[in-house]
Amino acid sequence: MVMQQDPSIEPGQRVRSLAEHGSNIVVDGNLPIRRYFRSGQEMIKMANIYYEEGNWESAFILYSKYMTIFVEKIRKHPQYKAARPEDLKSAKKNLKSAFPNAEETKKKLREKYAEEHKIWQVQEDERRAEEARQEAMEALRLEEEHARREQEDTARFDEQRRQLEELERHSIDQQQRELDGQKASLMQAKAKQEALDQERKKADALNEQEWQAEGNRRLAGSIATPIAAGGAAGLVAGMGAGGNLPPPPSYDAVSQGYGIRSPQVLPSSPTQPTAPRPAPTVDRSLKIDRTNKPAQMLGIASSTSNLHGLRDLFIPADTMERFLVLASHNTQRNLETCGILAGKLAHDAFTITHIIVPKQTSTSDSCTALNEEEIFDAVDNNDLITLGWIHTHPSQTAFMSSIDLHTHCPYQIMMPEAIAIVCAPKHQQICFFSLTPDYGITFIANCKEKGFHPHPSQPPIYEEGGHCKVTSQIPPIKIEDLR
């Protein structure tokens, strides 16, 4: 996996970080040393492919990894002294080409990174200038926005004040109209009362005149009529001791006698006018919140199919079906069948092209390949790279047993993209598994248990290989049966 490089970093530091990444490898003494020599051959093969394609980062990492293993660390392997001379000779030959190629890629990387750093510097200057321009524009926009808001607030407050004054004027006018109406009513009632009083005075005067006239008539009648002896005395007695006439009848008696009724007088205390309604008030403390703006949606693109940055591994669509046909005889007898997956590297992606079926021993829950040399020869003769293995579970579901995990671990240590394909024909399941790079590989490499044994379920030791791509757009699988 090529590290993602930051062009802002100094070119020399970027090259050193690649070298450190390539040299970060541990030689496991539990793996046969022959496996390291074989993987080294494939490592050089891939490095040369990357070199020819101009993929300098990947080529430099693999050259660095190869030199770290076969110059420094392989000597510490417990089987080093027993290593085959031809393997040592091949490694020495590869080192002779790896050193100059590594130096050449290092030079090209420095040139490439220097150019990228120069471009980055120009872009960074432009970015900063643009950022400063944007900041100035934003400051101006905020200033204009602030001024606009102040204008809006002033206009709004002026409008509220105008409305309040209008309401107050309307309320005062309404109160004045009500007071004027009440005053007019009082004046009208007063005038009516005065008219009634005048009529009453006239009636009283008329009654008094009539009473006096009646008295005069009676007096005249008494003088003209001879008075009997007893009558004069009675008359004098009726006049009282002072000789006066009896008092005139009251106004009420006269008015009742003449059929005059006293008019109903309005109450002296008129009804109080209705209090004016209070003018509506405006809450001047209320303000419009203008701070909230629409949030921007951030489109974050991420790949869920390849979480670990592994190179894509393309698998012919007919691979599993053809392997199940080949394994059907063992499947009917409840025996596992296994094969080695091998293929090519091109344009930073792997393609499985071959299944190499070795001589093997099988049980219902295990399968062991024999004669590794024949497998290596088949890989070399077809100029292939080992990319994992495939096996069946005749009666069980598709999963990785503890033995399967230990079988797969060396493949993935030497090739991070290596996969284990498990076919479970009885349950019609096919799965692509790999050890988790952040936990599973280290855990299984350090596990010294043999045979079937339990492993913890958390954290996960293995997972589905998200970098696997099954496709019919590539040539069909080739099978080389060595049995």
From TrEMBL:
PROSITE patterns: MPN
UniProt-listed InterPro entries: JAMM/MPN+_dom, MPN, STAMBP/STALP-like_MPN, USP8_dimer
GO molecular function: K63-linked deubiquitinase activity; metal ion binding; metal-dependent deubiquitinase activity
Span of domain MPN: 313-441
Gene Ontology process terms (BP): late endosome to vacuole transport via multivesicular body sorting pathway; protein K63-linked deubiquitination; proteolysis
Pfam families: JAB, USP8_dimer
Ranges in a coiled coil: 92-216
Residue span of region Disordered: 260-282
Alphabetic keyword roster: Coiled coil, Hydrolase, Metal-binding, Metalloprotease, Protease, Ubl conjugation pathway, Zinc
Cofactor(s) annotated in UniProt: Zn(2+)
Any single GO CC term annotated in Swiss-Prot or TrEMBL for this entry: membrane
Metal-binding in keyword set: yes
Assigned protein family: Belongs to the peptidase M67C family.
Protein name stated in the entry: MPN domain-containing protein
Species per Swiss-Prot/TrEMBL record: Strongylocentrotus purpuratus
Upper taxonomic lineage: Eukaryota, Metazoa, Echinodermata, Eleutherozoa, Echinozoa
